[in-house]
Structures are given as C-alpha cells and as structure tokens.
Amino acid sequence: MELREAIEKRFSCRRFADKPVEEEKIQEIIRLATYAPNGKNTQKWHFTIVESEEGKEKLRQAAGDPPEDFGKEMKDVPGYGKVKLKWPFQGDFCGAPIVIMISGDPNVPWPDIGPRLAAENLMLAATDLGLATLWSTLFTKDLFRDEKTLKLKEYFLPEGYELYATLFVGYPEKQPAKRPERKGDIISWR
Ligand SMILES: Cc1cc2nc3c(=O)[nH]c(=O)nc-3n(C[C@H](O)[C@H](O)[C@H](O)COP(=O)(O)O)c2cc1C
Question: How many domains does the chain have?
C-alpha cells in the first residue's frame, strides 16, 4: 500500500474481528512507530501490549465508576449514532484482541508529543498490514489518578512514565461503508 493510501484508509474501528494479531505484525507496527519524530531524539517511549484477560480487566478497573451524568440521556457518538452509553464505554475494547498503551518519560522535552506521533505511525503501519485501530480516550486520559489506580499504573507502565495514548488494535470486522467527511476551508495563505 502506498503511504498516501494508508493515510486515507486508516479509520477508527469500533468493531474488531474475533481473530488474533500475529506477533510479527505487532513487532513491525511498533518498530515503525519508533521512527516518529520526538523531542531531542530521547526516544523515551514505551509500548505495553495488553492481551491477557487479566490486563484487560485491570484496565476496566482503572476506568472506575461512571461520571455522575453518564448514561442518563442518549448521546451522539461518532461511529455509533445516538446511543445510551454503557459503562465502561467501549469496555470490551470493541472486541480488539490487543490494546497498546504508549507511555513516555514526563521529564524529557515535549514528553507527550513523541509518543503521540508514534501512535499515529503505529496506526498507519497497522492499516498498511490490514489491521485497524481505535484511539481510546477513556483508557488514556486520567486513567491513573488516585491511590487505587496508581497501583494499577505500576502494573502497566515503567516506573515514572506517563500514559499518552491507548490504542485498540486488531483485524476490523468490516471496512467502514463511509468515512467521516473531511472538512474544507482549513487553509490560509499569507
Ligand atoms: C485524542 C483522540 C481521542 C479519541 N477518543 C475516542 C474514543 O474514546 N472512542 C472512540 O470511539 N473514538 C475516539 N477517537 C476517534 C475519533 O472519534 C475519530 O478519529 C474521528 O471521529 C474521525 O474518524 P476517523 O478516525 O475514522 O477518521 C479519538 C481520536 C483521538 C485523536
């Protein structure tokens, strides 16, 4: 696949096939992820592959209790339409066989940017290999935030690292019928 094709074909996959991902493919997408630019070339990133039921259960535990107003009304969610949400939202990882957590050292220059650019590389490389991905907010932002969840952080991340991206990875159940339209009027020339 040409790079441009992979860029256009990458999509947020919200239902994965019941099919494992070959280890060589996992190694390859992580290898390519590490070609991302990163501040001062520190390359301080780490990739935690969560594949066990134990690991997935600990992720669900970290998500904790739903926010107070959660699930009270129908919400318009990209990829789902209007739905009443269940907690934890996407707690089945959309059926993905693996979840990849990308963390980094918060003490390097621009600590989050390298790991997040690595995440994009990883998603494009996965697309090229016939895989699909989903960036998950619930399992990234503030996942490790209090005494209980900080214990879980030790299980997942190297000491002192922070979590910057969490991706569900697997084979897509199907290709999307329609991609979200790309908006125009985004360029200025001066
Ligand atoms: C920072 C970030 C957080 C996201 N969080 C979620 C999420 O929690 N759940 C989800 O279904 N999609 C999530 N997405 C995917 C976006 O909804 C998706 O990229 C957008 O709707 C465009 O669709 P596309 O990726 O198929 O082009 C996230 C994307 C980004 C970059």
Answer: 1
Question: Residue 99 in contact with residue 168, Cβ under 8 Å?
Answer: yes
User: What is the domain-level CATH number for residue 105?
Assistant: 3.40.109.10
Q: Structural domain of residue 139, as residue ranges? A: 12-63+85-170
- pTM given for the model: 0.95
Q: Which atom of ligand 1 is nearest to the CA of 137?
A: 8
Sign of CA dihedral 58, 38, 125, 14: positive
CA of 19 to the centre of ligand 1 (A): 22
Handedness of CA 178, 126, 1, 5 (dihedral sign): positive
What does the pLDDT look like over 86-123, one tens digit per residue? 889 899 999 999 999 999 999 999 999 999 999 999 99
Q: Could you identify the residue written with the tokens 């094709």?
A: 5
Question: What token pair was written down for 72?
Answer: 């009270």
Kindly give the distance from the C-alpha atom of residue 116 to the centroid of ligand 1, in angstroms, as a whole number.
13
Q: How far is the CA of 135 from the centre of ligand 1 (A)?
A: 6
